[in-house]
Design a protein that fits this description.
By secondary structure, the chain is of the alpha/beta class. 53% of the residues lie in helices and 13% in strands. It has a single domain, classed as Rossmann fold (3-Layer(aba) Sandwich), CATH 3.40.50.
């Protein structure tokens, strides 16, 4: 009997939809699997393009894991052989629509005791968001079997400029004709079909134990030390900002402060801290760094 797969995702620009289309294509063409695609939407849509104020206003709730109402949606089955979740990090956390979906009791019941594969498309910082997804899936008793993280491979500062240009203007072209196109490259989106083929093989055998190892060998997740380092520090600081802003009556003023803090932290503080780390700490911590990388590549929750 043909296997049944649910691919549920959110997207604003269409990037995640394109990823889901390429990624799931081999499941249908090679093994004749039935793939049901469901695009979720917030009841109150987020703006796109964003204004700067609206963009940063999404931070406190994304980071705290607050929920929003989603447009009602239905699925055809009450049990699937595999559920694929396509998401994007917002401020190092699952985007609000996906974080909310994973806390919906009906969706939690649907994915209970079910293999889940997550696929994300982001600028380059997905580690913290994936750790939060791991926790949400564990709370639903779902079984995370695989993870693929697609990123913009350009330099961290180049992609910071281009993502803000994309998000704040809605244009996915080359800023000033100089910068590269923002987002995950078209080649990487198309190549996600290779990962889909691997998932398809494991789905046919109903063998999930070794899926992530194989995906890692194929380059489905690639951890760059300096980004992991920044994320680990930033994740903790974002939580503090989120708590302070959510508990304050001066939300707008604090969000402006957070915006400048973030830009200074990324552009001024991070390079200095990374340099100090490279000279004084990193050379002596190679074993620990290797363990951290292996943990974040994996699908297990500490
Ligand atoms: C509010 C907001 C916050 C974001 N935060 C991050 C982030 O923390 N890390 C990252 O790599 N990308 C971040 N991005 C980029 C998204 O992960 C994603 O790549 C982009 O929004 C396009 O996704 P979509 O069109 O499929 O929704 C952010 C985007 C938005 C709109």
């Amino acid at each position: 009997m043909s296997k049944k797969v649910l691919a549920v995702y959110f997207t604003q620009t269409g990037q995640m939809e394109s990823i889901i289309d390429h990624f799931t294509a081999p499941l249908v063409t090679i093994s004749g699997t039935t793939v049901e695609k469901v695009r979720i939407s917030p009841l109150r849509p987020f703006p796109f393009p964003w204004t700067s104020q609206e963009f940063f206003d999404a931070m406190p709730e994304s980071v705290s894991g607050a929920t929003i109402d989603l447009e009602p949606f239905s699925v055809k089955e009450n049990k699937y052989d595999l559920v694929i979740i396509g998401y994007q990090p917002w401020f190092l956390s699952p985007s609000l629509p996906i974080g909310s979906l994973l806390q919906q009791p009906t969706f939690m019941a649907l994915i209970k005791n079910t293999p889940v594969v997550t696929i994300s498309g982001c600028r380059n910082m997905w580690i913290n968001a994936q750790e939060k997804i791991k926790k949400l899936l564990a709370a639903a008793d779902a079984r995370l079997c695989g993870n693929i993280a697609l990123v913009d491979r350009h330099n961290n500062y180049t992609s910071l400029v281009t993502i803000l240009y994309w998000m704040l203007t809605g244009k996915k072209d080359r800023k000033w004709g100089i910068f590269p196109k923002p987002g995950v490259s078209d080649e990487d989106i198309a190549d996600s079909a290779h990962f889909g083929k691997t998932v398809s093989d494991h789905l046919q055998k109903n063998e999930w134990e070794h899926l992530q190892t194989q995906l890692i060998q194929q380059g489905a997740v690639q951890i760059r030390y300096h980004l992991m380092f920044i994320e680990r520090k930033a994740g903790r600081l974002f939580s503090i900002w989120s708590k302070v802003i959510r508990g304050s009556k001066k939300r707008s003023a604090l969000l402006v402060a957070f915006k400048y803090y973030l830009l200074i932290a990324l552009c001024v503080a991070a390079p200095v801290i990374l340099l100090v780390d490279a000279l004084l700490f990193k050379p002596f911590l190679s074993k620990r760094i290797k363990q951290q990388k292996e943990y974040y590549e994996g699908v297990y929750l500490k």
